[in-house]
Amino acid sequence: MKTEAPVAQAIRDKLQAAFQPHRLEVIDDSRRHAGHAGAREGGESHFNVVIEASIFEGLSRVERQRRVNRALKEELAGPVHALSIKALAPGEA
Amino acid sequence: MTDVAADPVHAFIAKTVEENPVVLFMKGTPDAPRCGFSSVVVQILDHVEAPFVGVDVLQDEELRNGIKTYSDWPTIPQLYVKGEFVGGCDIVREMFQSGELKPLLVEKGVVSA
Question: Which residues of A touch B72 (CB under 8 A)?
Answer without folding.
Answer: 66
